[in-house]
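Hi all, long-time lurker, first post. I run a small reading group and we've been trying to get comfortable going from sequence to structure in the token notation. Rather than ask abstract questions, I figured I'd post a concrete chain and ask someone more experienced to write out its structure so we can walk through it together at our next meeting. Sequence below, copied exactly:
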Amino acid sequence: MNTPTSRRGFLAEVGKGMMVATLGYQAAREIGVASALGDEVSEKLSFGSLEPLVCLMQESNPQQLLPVLVEQLRSGVELRRLVAAAALANARTFGGEDYVGFHTMMALAPALHMSEELPKELAPLPVFKVLYRNTNRIQEHGGRTGEILHEVKPGTLSDSSQAGEFLREQIRRKDVNGAEQTFAALAKRSPEEAFNDLLYAVQDNTEVHRVVLPYRAWDLLGLVGMEQAHTLLRQSVRYCVKAESWSPQYPPSGEPKTLLPKLLEEHKLLEKSEAGTKQAEDAWVDQMSQTIFKSSPEQAAQAVAAALAEGMAPAAIGEALTLAANQLILRDYGRTPDSEVAGKPIGSVHGDSIGVHACDSANAWRNMSRVSNSRNCFASLILGAYQVALDRTNRGGDFLHWEPLPLARYIKEVKATTQEALLREADEAIRGNLQARATGIVHRYAELGFSERPLFDLMLRYAISEDGALHAEKFYRTMSEEFAATRPVFRWRHLKALARVTASEYGRPAAGVMEARGLLKV
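-- Answer (accepted) --
Happy to help. Here is the structure in token form:
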């Protein structure tokens, strides 16, 4: 960068992302701040045929948005296209640097998946809920005047075989311009390779948003299109650069920087061109999940690395990983008086709780292991185990001694034996914020062999109606994915966790949902 040293010191002091968020891009540009943030090429991003919809998402008054969206649907615009436009509007506005902004981006694909589980007349509701949140936050951010992402000129790749390491080093140096230009060149070459190269930097730390953001962006590409991979994934580049400026105490551990390469070399995993295919019995999955949950972070990572070296199938390790994370929800005593905030009362487990964050992270690691190359498959599972164990040991609580829900007495209290009665009691437990009772009802429901779909339909209703402190859509999707990916003997643990979180979040309706229902007449 050619920025004067004095200005560089000033930016380091106030925080790069905060300056643009506060001033808006145009004002920041006028005092020379924007170029220091990696926007040396100032041409605005444009998205071809989607551009009018993208602008609509950025420029609409939130109070006028929902009627406009209803008209869009009636004119033949598909929900998928609205979600694609919202994702691009979000990326262009926030660039992965705004807390509410990137949480909203991560909710877009889950909301669309939720819509596909609903009758046609109700399908727009989860999408409209998140689109309203998206536009509202964009307007709070300054609309189009506050855009973070602009065109970036691709750099030159001298050694494509070391591109991931090179990008990671630029990010570690907080060279946002260099990292942006390198990533632009990588994305131009291949979206798949760019994603794999990006993961080198992501893997430097297991902080939850650093982990979940790239997977949720990747998941969106199925509807936005691979041609937009650069726009969506560069949000993670900027997020990782920004994270390098945080205090060494947050996130709590930089150990993955040294531990991961050590384990990959020690177990000769870099010599493997493909992951193993050895299938696991139920007892092995159960034991591995307990090992991950009970061990220190390094021990958990070591156990998974050894299993991968032995040729265990990644899917089996992924099951164990997500089951270990699940325990952080089922065992949690909930928010303490010290951590109570508005919308998250004492005893609650929704929003950014230990368990919700752990489950969303484990889901992201498992999915990234599924869609990445062999090196990143191994790294994702190793770090996924590391992160679950770190969450258990570093975020407080006596999880090894707390028993998982439902306790025996909550199961005994359930007297109903018909599906209809159990669903009615589950609904009552959710509305009463009775977290433990909700898990006991799901346990009895599963014991009696009833279909999971009506229970998911019940949880889906509240994942739409409730705010969920920015996590309702994503967590519903996480749990429904994990239920489908887990063998029958263990899968109902995920529905118990979903029931508990749903009961925790009930009573705080989401903005825009009632208005959307009125406009859609549902």
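A couple of things your group might point at:
The longest helix spans residues 374-394.
The chain is about 65% helix and 0% strand.
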